[in-house]
Amino acid sequence: MGSPEARPREEAVNPLLNTQRHVHTAAVAGHRTALEDALRSYLHRRLRDAEAVDREFGRELAGETVRFTLGGGKRMRSLLAWWGWIAGGGTTDGEGAHSALQACGALELIQTCALVHDDVMDGSPTRRGRPSVHARHTAEHAENGHGGEPRRYGEALAVLVGDLALVWADDMFGEALAGVPRPGRARPVWRELRTEIMAGQFLDVRAQARRDRSEGAALRVNLLKTASYSVERPLHLGAAMAGADGETVDALRGYGRDVGTAFQLRDDLLGVYGDSARTGKPVGEDIREGKCTLLLGAGVRLAGEQEDAAARDLLARVGADADPAEVADTLDRLGARDLVRARCEELAARGAGRLDGLDLDPVVLEGLRGLAARTGTDPA
C-alpha cells in the first residue's frame, strides 16, 4: 500500500471518496458474482443434458463450450444488460431479478459464439493468451495421428462449439424471459442484437476481402459488430425487460452507440500499439490480416492529403507483405493515431453526457461513467 501522499490529492483530502469508491467496487463485484452464478448454474445443467445424449459429445463438444464460456472474459455485456435492467426499474432481488440475471447471462454464450467463430475466420492462433479453440483442436488432432486434415478438423470443432453456444444462448434467454415484467418488449431487442452481430461480422469479412480502406466502412463495421452488440443492445435489452420509459431507453442506447464505438476504436489502437500480455492476442494481427479499421482508413486518407507516396505504397500492402511495426510508425507519423485517440475521447465524452438528467441507481451511474472514462483514455 502506498502512503496517502502517493495517492491523488482529492482522495487524501476527502477520505469519503475512498469509501464511496470501495462501496461501488463491492457492489459491482456483487453484480458480477450473481451473473457468474446464474451462468454457471445454467451451463452445468446443460452439460449434464448433453452427457445424457452422448458421453463424448458432452465431454468434448459441450464441455469445450462450457470451459470456454466460464474460462475468461470480464462479463461486460451481461453486466451492462443487468445495469440496463436496474436503470429501467428492475429489482435486484426476488423472482424477477433471478430471471433477469439468467437472461442477461445468455449474452455470454453469444460472446462465446462470436469469439470462437471470429478466431476461425481470422485464423487467429490465440485467444485470452491461450491457443484458440480451432488451433488447440488442430494441434491435438495432429499429435494423436488421427486421419484427415488436422486444420479442417480443428475448424469444424470450433464451428460446432460456436453453434452450440448460440443455441444455448437462445434457450437460456427464452427460458428466463417468462419471469421478467416485459417479455414482449425484450424479444425484439434480442432478435435485433443477434442479427446485427451477424451483419457486422459479414461487413467485416467483406471489407477485408475487398481491401476496403474507407473510414465510413470501418465505422459501419464498428457500429454493428461492436457498438451495438457490446454496449447499446445489452443496455437496451435489460431496460426493455424491466419496462423502462422511452427517455431512459433513448439515453442508454445513445450512450451505448457512442461508448461502444469508442470501445472498438480503442481496441483497434491496442491491436497496433498495445501489449500482447494485456490483449491476449498478437500485436499487429489486424495489420497482417488487412482489417478495415478507422485507424487504417484515416492513414490512407492522410497519406493522400499529405502526398506521401511512400506511406501510400506501404499502406496499400497492408494485409499482404507490409511490416506491422513499420505500418504502426507510419500511421503515427501521418497523424492517424492522434485522430483516432481524439475520436475516442469525443465519443466517450458525448456518451457520458447522455446520462445527464437520468435518475439512475448510483452504482449504475458511476459504472457507466467509469466505462466511458476508461474508453476515452489512451490505451497504449
TrEMBL record:
Pfam families: polyprenyl_synt. The lineage of its organism: Bacteria, Bacillati, Actinomycetota, Actinomycetes, Streptosporangiales. Residues 127-136 have a biased composition (Basic residues). Keywords: Magnesium, Metal-binding, Transferase. The keyword Metal-binding applies. Belongs to the FPP/GGPP synthase family. Residues 123-150 are annotated as: Disordered. Its cofactor is Mg(2+). It comes from the Bacteria. This is Polyprenyl synthetase family protein. InterPro entries: Isoprenoid_synthase_dom_sf, Polyprenyl_synt, Polyprenyl_synt_CS. Residues 137-150 have a biased composition (Basic and acidic residues).
